[in-house]
Each structure stands twice: as C-alpha cells, then as structure tokens.
Amino acid sequence: MSARHWAVIGLMITALSWAGNALIARASAGMLPPIGLSFWRWSVALVLLLPFTLRGLWQYRRLLLDNGLRIAVLAALSISSYNTLLYQAAQSTSAINLTLVGTGLPVSAFFWSMLLLRQVPARATVGGTLLGLCGLLLILTGGQPARLLALHFNDGDLIMLAAVLSWGLYTVLLQRWVMPAPGLVLMAAMLLCGVPLLAPFFLWELAQLGPMPVTWPAAGAVGYTAVFASLVAYVAWNHGVKVLGPSTASLFSYLVPAFTALLGVALLGEQLYWYHLAGGALTFLGLLVATRWR
C-alpha cells in the first residue's frame, strides 16, 4: 500500500483510540483528578517508550537540541495542554457538548493553516468537512436537529474550545516545523519536555484534591490512555499530518463520535439506532471525498 493508505489507516486507529479515551474521560469524571490522570498517563507512556528510544535520542541529539524550543512548544500544546484541558472540561460539561465543541478541530486547523502556512483548504477538503459534520450532527442529535436549540454551554465548553485551538495549532506546527527524526524518537523528546511542563500543575492539584485513588479502574484508565490514546495515537497522528497535511488529517477527528457510539454498543450494551449508521456513513463518505477526490 502507498504512504497515503498507511496514513489513512493510522488516522483511523487514532480516532478509535481517542474514542476509548472519550469513554474513559466521561466515566472518570468526578472520580479521577483530571490533571493527575493526564500526568500519570504521560509519565507511564514515557517510561514505556524510553527503553526503545534512548539510542535514537542519542543519535539525533544534535537535531533535537537545535530544535529544542520547537519541541517544547509542540509538547506544551499537545501533551501538557490538550488532554489536560479535555479532562478538565469533562468535569463540568456534558459528553454531547464536548463532542460538539470538538467538531471545531478541522476549523481550527483550517484557521491556523491559512494564518501560518498560507494554505487555503482544497474544495475536496471543504466538501469532505461538510459531509463529515452533517454525519456527526446526525449522531449527536439522534436524528432530531431541534435538539441543538436546547443545548446550553458553560465554562467547561470554553475550556474545550481552548483545547481545540491548542490541538489545531499543534497539528499545523507539525507541518511547518518538519524535523527529520523517527516518529518514536520525536515522541520521546516531546514527552521529555511535556511531562516536566505538566508537573507544576499536577503538584498544585495534588495539594488541592489529594492523590489519585489506587484502584484497578484507575490503573486501567492510566494504562489504556498511556498505551493507546498516547503512544499509538500520537505517532499515527503525527505521521498522518506529515503525509496528508493538517487540514485533511484533522477531518479524522469526526470519526471519534462514530467510534464512541460503536464502542458504547459493544462494551456498554447501548442501543444502536438508524442515525448512528447513517451518521457514520456520511462521516466515512466525507473522509473518502477529502482523501481520494482529485
């Protein structure tokens, strides 16, 4: 398969991993401290990744040191900010509001692309975005668009908006600051910057709320988010942005609600309705238009 095919598969795996992350964020709201979950997630990911990347970090040390400021900015936007803000937003807003505000990720990527890269999205990308958005709204409203009028937004939604802007900027800067280092090595370098940047906020939360409970559900949440929502998803996302560009790669975020619905059916015994299937079909059609249409 071509590099584009592998990039598409990787981005679909990313969306599936983040769907599981969304379920954990909803289930742990009020039980696990949001910054603590983020800190331990990335700390465990760093411990797991370092044995496989120490040699590469040393081999590419000159490149990494020369781009140290850029790596620190990327780490601050993604590792230290995005997921921490998402977990924080989940404490005070509904799952549907989180997902609705999250639909702004492609728009955020479009905005930063035009501002920093001087790139105007292609018609195929815009068309795919609109199709994907229609499919997503169909899922979120249960086939009843009038439900959108009954939604109320709060402080948690503003936090999620900040997370979306942060992730959009991270995605575009990945395209602008190309660094010829293997994906795992670059990921390890970002973790080495991102975890210390997150540590002061973790210590503040620790003093306010106390430590994270030592339970099997907490360990499972940290383990899943460290391996799948962190290492697997981030490496696949970074590669997808490199191959497809930030505007097209960001469209795969529309798959997260569709995969979340499917996981809810498979793992939580939730009911599958017609609008799940129709919305998912529209979302996949939008991705097909954006990635294959010439």
Automatic annotation (TrEMBL):
Pfam family, one: EamA
Entry's transmembrane regions: 39-57, 69-89, 95-117, 124-146, 158-177, 184-204, 216-237, 249-267, 273-291
Membrane disposition: Multi-pass membrane protein
One GO CC term on file: membrane
Keyword Amino-acid biosynthesis attached: no
Keywords assigned by UniProt, alphabetized: Membrane, Transmembrane, Transmembrane helix
Domain EamA: 6-141, 156-290
Claim: Transmembrane is one of the keywords in the record: yes
Subcellular location: Membrane
PANTHER family on file: EAMA DOMAIN-CONTAINING PROTEIN, INNER MEMBRANE TRANSPORTER
Protein family membership: Belongs to the EamA transporter family.
Protein name (Swiss-Prot/TrEMBL): Membrane protein
Phylogenetic lineage: Bacteria, Pseudomonadati, Pseudomonadota, Gammaproteobacteria, Pseudomonadales
